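In response to reviewer comment 3 from the previous cycle, which asked for concrete evidence that the modeling workflow produces usable outputs, we include below a single protein chain processed end to end. The sequence was submitted unchanged, and the resulting structure tokens are shown without manual editing.
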Amino acid sequence: MKSVSIILIWVFPALLIHWPGAGQNILRYNVTGRVYDAADHHPIRATIIFQALPDISEVYIDDSHETSGVYSIGVHRQNKYLVEVSAPNYKPEIDTLNIDQNLDSINYQLVSVKPGSVLRLQRIYFEQGDFQIQGNSFEELNELLLLLEQYPEMVVRLEGHTDRLGGRQANMVLSQNRVEEIKKYLIRHGIEEKRVKTQAFGGSRPISTENDEESRQINRRVEVRILSI
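The workflow returned the following structure tokens.
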């Protein structure tokens, strides 16, 4: 009797990872820019990662220069990319870019994190008078999630603020419900509940005292206060 050997071959999707200087002959588009501190604009050495969407089949990585903050990443085909910019002691930035031939310089400013720092979540959206998180808020939420993952001992307090329209008690309830929704999102994605505190201020701490819509939008916000790292 003849013996028969069976060989199983596992086939995985291709993942192309490119570092600076690799595969220069196939690169078509070059994305450049600077990474700097949001407060005083000094350059930052950061890691910039471009991931091709939707399947993350290609990953491009570069580090910005320590003294200039300049980075340069070549991508080998026109595409939509998820961009992650991170540096020690800074809140990471997540961005989505459509790459084309006319792309201008793309700069990133990072906000430093330390106990006592307050990070304003600029891109968290709610319907007026509602606390359900809108779909275009998740990029900002994922930046906060990434920060908490990078610092596993970090404890934060989510602080909710509304404009001054409506009753005081209603605004307090609304701002509390909004920060609780953000807390639930973080917990669903693996952050321990004890690391996320919440506090509602309603309309009691406005940034602007003007009564126009632009000022009211500024006052409607969620801030993240870093309690410990």
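The radius of gyration is 22 Å. We consider this sufficient to address the reviewer's concern, and the full set will be provided in the supplementary archive.
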